[in-house]
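Our consortium's second objective concerns turning raw sequence data into structural hypotheses that experimental partners can test. To show how far this objective has progressed, the report includes one record in full. It was chosen at random from the queue rather than selected for favorable results. The single chain below, 95 residues long, was entered without modification.
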Amino acid sequence: MKKCTVRHGIRVRQRGQGMTEYIIITALIAIAAIGAVTYFGGTVRAQVGGMAQELSGHKATASIGDAESSAGKAASEGKAGKQKGLANYDNKTAK
């Protein structure tokens, strides 16, 4: 009877070990994703700003003005914000 209890206890520990391994792997993937977004964030912002400027050439006058102003904001943010992080976060909607 004691052997059955010991085996059951080992199985419980093994299940816990498996869950711990999954948590560690998930944390490592999250850290890698955060690092990639931080490293390539400026490039992505600059590319999206460039695409927005390219797409703003339609013939609708109001749409062109709106698209050009949005594209200009995106392009200037992409060029000016090479290092983005929580240090330069400004929550303008809460003010």
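The partners drew two points from this record. The first helix runs from residue 2 to 55. The chain has one domain: 2-81. Both points have been shared with the crystallography group to help prioritize constructs.
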